[in-house]
Amino acid sequence: MNTRSIYKLLLALAGASALVALVLFIIGNPQLAGPFLIAFFVLLAIGFRGYQSLRGFSFTAVIFASVTVAMYYPTNFQEVNGYDLKNLFTPLLQLIMFGMGTAIGIKDFLGVVKMPRGVLVGVLCQFSIMPFVGFTIAHTLGVAPEIAAGIILIGSSPSGLASNVMAYLAKANLALSITLTAIATLLAPLITPNMMGWLAGEFVEVDVLGMMWSMVRIVIIPVFAGVAFNHFFSGKFKWLDEAMPYVSMFGIAYIITIITAAGRDNLLEVGVILILAGIFHNIAGYFLGYWGARLFRMPEQDCRTVALEVGMQNGGLASALANEMGKVATVGLAPAIFGPVMNITGSTLATYWRGKPLPEEEKGQEKEVVPVEHDKATT
Fold first, then answer.
1. Which of 25, 51, 197, 261 has CA atoms 20 to 30 A from the CA of 152?
2. What Å distances lie between residue 233 and 88, 219, 223, CA to CA?
3. In this predicted model, what pLDDT tens digit does every residue of 291-323 receive, in sequence order?
């Protein structure tokens, strides 16, 4: 059996597992469906790896597997021998931020000089559009105050590395995407807490200065440590470069699993609402980010970049901040749900744009056609 056949078999087994789970739900045994749902997402994640067009959805399937495990077996992900597993949030995210620093490097911060308009427009759209979209959704839904505050928190957070991956897939301006992520991340300790104090203060008590210090510890120090490491030791630790993406994926999956386990009862009440809110949140970000960039007469490639940077937030950072507030089971729910949702919507949009030629590509195709027609005419 060749490799492609193995991936096809795994996807077939995933489909069979989903079918069994569905039947168990229909006949009234949802608890028994748990292992089959978990198997469905795990097999799907592995099976997707065998297809280039589906590989981007593999991590999303892993996240859904993590959420399903936590929903069915929450007590296994709350504490171990008296140790609260939420205590690992901050060091894990610091490690992820360090990895971001090693990936972006000093040259990406210098992108501000090379692309000042793109960076200015992107950052302006990022921190003006999404906090207010989150605020509007939070007021419209009428959910519990702390859950509403979580929606504003994810909207007030900067973009993450996932947006860079989507920008690459969408044929967007990858250099601008990386620079925007870096700049937004560094500005977040100043902007995010103040946005939370202003927009979410009516829902929960927000210690603005305390949140600023938390973000300095979680974001600024690790990122600059990573940038320094990349500058002085670039290329000398290739195993670290290869390992960091997997560490980041594990860290995000772990954080979402623990949050889901802690907030399971609340999720059973508002989970569907938060999923729909997450979809609307992302779509609004993509739409307003894209047309905001068009308003400033930016090229198509840059417009795609800004759209993805605005629509996709750093869910892991928002989750860690909710944990620092001591409200991970409520404020942390929206970041935990919106994370997987934005991976799905972002992958879908990136795939659509990948199949849609940029204006300069269309012009290039036209130029290639003209000489051929001319030759035929003269012949």
1. 261
2. 27, 21, 15
3. 999 999 999 999 999 999 999 998 888 988 998
Identify residue 59 by its one-letter amino acid code.
Answer: F
Cα separation of 161 and 96, whole Å? Answer: 10
Pick left, alpha or beta for residue 102 (phi over 0 → left; psi -120 to 50 → alpha; otherwise beta).
alpha
Delineate the domains of the chain, giving CATH numbers in brackets: 85-358 (1.20.1530.20)
Rg over alpha carbons for the chain, rounded to the nearest Å, is: 22
Per-residue pLDDT band at 111 (split at 50, 70, 90): low
* Cβ-based neighbours of 162, under 8 Å, separated by 6 or more: 312, 342, 343, 346
* 3-state SS, residue 80: strand
**Geometric angle at alpha carbon 151, from 145 and 155, rounded to 5°:** 145
Q: Minimal CA–CA distance to 347: which of 160, 163, 164, 166? A: 166
Work out the angle at residue 351's Cα, subtended by the Cα atoms of residues 350 and 354, and round it to the nearest 5 degrees: 85
Rounded percentage of the chain residues whose pLDDT exceeds 70: 91
Name the amino acid, one letter, at 160: G
In b/e form, how buried is each residue of 184-212, taking b as 16+ CB within 10 angstroms? Answer: bbeebbebbbbbbbebbeebbebeeeebb
Nearest to 168, CA basis, from 359, 309, 315, 45? 309
Average pLDDT estimate for 136-151: 92
Write the DSSP assignment of 296-361 as a string of letters: TT--HHHHHHHHHHHH---HHHHHHHHHHTT-TTTTTHHHHHHHHHHHHHHHHHHHHHHTS--HHH
**Coil, strand or helix: which one is 79?**
strand
DSSP conformation letters of 83-107: EEGGGGHHHHHHHHHHHHHHHHHHH
